[in-house]
Structure formats: structure tokens, C-alpha cells
Amino acid sequence: MDIDAWVWWLIGAVGLGIPLVVTAMPEFGMLAVGAVAASATAAVGGGAVAQTIVFVAVSVALIAVVRPIAARHRSQRPELASGIDALKGRSAVVLERVDASGGRIKLAGEVWSARPLDTEQSFEAGQQVDVVEIDGATAVVM
């Protein structure tokens, strides 16, 4: 039983897919795609030289184009705010009068102590306020 060249290329692609999964190195995936392209070339009757050229060209093109894009995305960290940083800029509802001596607001479903950014300002119960910053356990609002 003689196995066609396109089958060998698919076996090679699967063989390159295994280290891709084990090591999470995307280069193996790009080489596997090159092997699939060479398999397609073999299936349509391309010779050994054409198959090799297609494998090398597709693999190199993917590595040259996709790898820098992936590296750039990997180095950029998502701008996800968490903890008190996630509360800055949110709206809250005044529960008890907020003035220079303090007060209470409902922020993100929780009751917080609050004080105004401008000590001359005050907010009455029911008003919407914006959280400017969190100072310890106190929300600074405006």
C-alpha cells in the first residue's frame, strides 16, 4: 500500500500540531498550516519541489506577518480597572446628606461614606453624584 504525498503532509501537520498544544508556541501552528497548504498542493498534482516551496513560503509568510502582530498583542496588557480604581468615575445616589462633615451614598450596590470634593458643596438625599476618587473607605464625590 503506497501512501500519497498529501497524506504525509497531513500527518506532518498533525505532528506539528502536537507541540503547538503542548508548548503553546504559535510557530508550530504556522508550520502546521504550511504543511496543510503543501498537502493541498500535492492533492492537486504539484510535484515534490512545488510542495516544498509552498510549505516554506506559507510557513515563512505566516511567521513573518502573524508573529509580530501576536507579540504586539501579547505585550499589551488590557486596561481593566479593579478594586477601588473601578469605582472612580461611577455614579452614585446620595442616601444621607453629603457635606464637609460626611454623609452616605449608594455606590455599586454598597453603602459608602462620602464627602464632597469641594468642601463648600453639599448634596441632598436622592441626588446623583459622581465619584472622583476613593480616600480610604470614603468616596470623594462631586
Structure description:
It is found in: Membrane. This is Membrane protein implicated in regulation of membrane protease activity. One of its GO terms (biological process) is proteolysis. There is one protein chain. The protein folds into two domains: 71 residues, no CATH class; 59 residues, OB fold (Dihydrolipoamide Acetyltransferase, E2P). It contains three helices and five strands, in the order H-H-H-E-E-E-E-E. Helix 2 packs antiparallel against helix 3.
Q: How big is the Rg?
A: 30 Å
What is the residue-mean pLDDT, rounded to a whole number?
Answer: 91
Give the CA-based shape: rod-shaped
Number of individual domains: 2
Which ranges are low-confidence, i.e. pLDDT below 50, for 5 or more consecutive residues? none
Q: How far do the termini sit from each other? A: 81 Å
SS class: alpha+beta
For the secondary structure, the number of strands is 5
Strand content: 15-25%
Treating each run of at least 4 consecutive H or I residues as one helix, how many helices? 3
Strand/helix succession: HHHEEEEE
Strand order of the largest sheet: 1-2-3-5-4
Helix percent band? 40-55%
Largest sheet: 5 strands, mixed, barrel
Summary of the model, kept short:
One of its GO terms (molecular function) is peptidase activity. This protein is of the alpha+beta class.
List keywords for this structure.
OB fold (Dihydrolipoamide Acetyltransferase, E2P), 5-stranded mixed beta barrel, alpha+beta, single chain
Give the topology, please.
Blueprint: H1 5-23, H2 26-43, H3 48-75, E1 91-99, E2 102-107, E3 110-116, E4 128-135, E5 138-141
Parallel strand pairs: 3-5
Antiparallel strand pairs: 1-2, 1-4, 2-3, 4-5
Helix pairs in contact: 1-2, 2-3
